[in-house]
């Protein structure tokens, strides 16, 4: 299972796109989402990221900070849609695969494309957590 026990550094702060978009997902493994091509992505400069991201988004995605548990935008969000990388716009998770892990961070049973995320063991907060990065 893909859980964000701790912050999903490298992509969280998430964005949620398309209310109702998740309903379009089928039970079969989805193909690479249309409209986002990794070959077209060029990471913005540090100064551009500082200007476009909130301070928390910048710290989480660029400096490996961690959002506070139970005090972040998406941990208790139940809106249907697709969760995307706030920096690249890459579609990562469907709300259909979101569940309450009790950790205070959004957790998902699977990504839209397994090859687009990786798990990392994090021991920085005096406990072992699994974080998911894009």
Explain what the structure shows:
This protein is an alpha+beta fold. It has 2 helices and 7 strands; from the N terminus they run E-H-H-E-E-E-E-E-E. It has one domain: Beta Complex (Metal Binding Protein, Guanine Nucleotide Exchange Factor, Chain A). The strands form 3 sheets. Strands 1-2-3 form a 3-stranded antiparallel beta sheet, with no helix packed on it. A two-stranded antiparallel ribbon has the order 4-5. Strands 6-7 form a two-stranded antiparallel sheet. The longest helix has 9 residues, at 55-63.
How do you describe this structure in short?
With 134 residues, the protein is α+β, with helices and mostly antiparallel strands.
Main sheet: strand order: 1-2-3
Query: Would you list the SSEs in sequence order as H and E?
Result: EHHEEEEEE
Q: How many H/I helices?
A: 2
Task: Please summarize the sheet with the most strands.
Answer: 3 strands, antiparallel
Number of strands: 7
Task: Find the CATH superfamily.
Answer: Peptide methionine sulfoxide reductase
Distance between the termini: 15 Å
The oligomerization state is single chain
Return the CATH architecture: Beta Complex
DSSP strand content = 15-25%
SS class: alpha+beta
Overall, the morphology is globular
Radius of gyration: 14 Å
Instruction: Examine the coordinates and then state which fold CATH places here, giving the name of the CATH topology.
Output: Metal Binding Protein, Guanine Nucleotide Exchange Factor, Chain A
């Amino acid at each position: 299972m893909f859980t964000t026990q701790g912050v999903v550094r490298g992509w969280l702060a998430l964005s949620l796109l398309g209310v109702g978009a998740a309903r379009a997902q089928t039970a079969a493994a989805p193909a690479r989402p249309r409209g986002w091509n990794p070959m077209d992505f060029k990471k913005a400069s540090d100064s551009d990221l500082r200007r476009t991201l909130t301070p928390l988004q910048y710290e989480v995605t660029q400096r490996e900070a961690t959002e506070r548990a139970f005090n972040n935008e998406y941990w208790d969000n139940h809106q249907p849609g697709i969760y995307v990388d706030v920096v690249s716009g890459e579609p990562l998770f469907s709300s259909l695969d979101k569940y309450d892990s009790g950790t205070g961070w959004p957790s998902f049973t699977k990504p839209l494309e397994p090859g687009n995320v990786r798990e990392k063991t994090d021991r920085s907060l005096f406990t072992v957590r699994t974080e998911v990065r894009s």
